[in-house]
Amino acid sequence: MLKAIVQGNDKLIGQAAARIRFMKEILEGEVLEAACNGDEEVLQLLRLHLMNEGWWNKVVNVDLRKSGNSNSNQKPILKPVRLHKPNNIPVSGLLTKEEEKNLLGNFILNKRELVHPNVIKMVQADENEGIRMTLNQIHYGTLRTSRQTKEIKKGRMGCRQEEGHPKGSREKGKPRKGYDNVKFKKSFADILKDNKHPGQTQQKIASRFSESAHNSTDTLFFSDFEEGAKVVNIWKVLKRIGRVRDIILPRKKDRYNKRFGFIKPMVMSCAKSFMRLSNKISIGGNKIRIQWAKKYADKKERGVQLKNLRRIAPTILHRVIILVWRGKTTAANNGWE
């Protein structure tokens, strides 16, 4: 409703005012004022208590014609003394057993994905052992989730720093450096004259070029992911760590009848970040294993072997055969036999 009013829907203002007038009769003034100011803790507690006391549907479906009449003799249902910061939970000494049970049930319901289904059945049967096991599983599951999130953020920051873009490296308001902002102070002839070791400079330039060319073709092999995983799901997980050029999922499976795939990272730093998080990234509940693809390593070794074979000088026997063949060709041309 608030978004609609902000966007210019004035027809909802009367309904919102009617709800506030209705809640004035059943709430403390301080609580209502804090809720109108946007206090998140008060708003959360207010909604919880309105639902527990059965007032939520009455507030939502309030009659605009009767909202101005203050005929209700109801006492306030929420007091500001019950607020307990920073945990956003009422003080346990001021709660009844029924309220404590409802609060615990809502907490378990919100963390249901971290608890085993059999333990949920024990909680529904009001077993104390089930409640104890549920709280333990929620505790350790939350720690495991936060640890995995920290590792992903750490890998992403390492990828950005290796690319040369550390956090906060560029000053605020400073324009990015483009082609028009570059100032050429010296010509290439002046640079070559000032250079005292041209051979070393050429070697450095060649090594940089070969390194960039090698980095652009590196590919990673990954496996042990979920059987029904798709490229879109895998890309959503990997993009939080580094930039990906392409993801390939072949139809065929490996010798263990499992699916595998290939990742083509954008730069070498992103590939190293993926390698560091091997067996730590989970896709569909399974932790994937990442390693360098052997296909490209084999091609590189094969190319080196062919290059070495081409450099082998001809043997003495080859030279003799060549000379004999040239002699016969000359004799045939001159009419000798």
TrEMBL record:
Amino acid composition bias (Basic and acidic residues), ranges on this chain: 148-179
Keywords: RNA-binding
Gene3D superfamilies: 3.30.70.330
SUPFAM superfamilies linked: RNA-binding domain, RBD
Protein's recorded name: RRM domain-containing protein
Signal peptide: none
Record flagged with keyword RNA-binding: yes
GO molecular function, a single term: RNA binding
Residue ranges annotated for the RRM domain, each copy included: 218-295
Organism this protein belongs to: Heracleum sosnowskyi
Annotated stretches, region: Disordered: 147-179
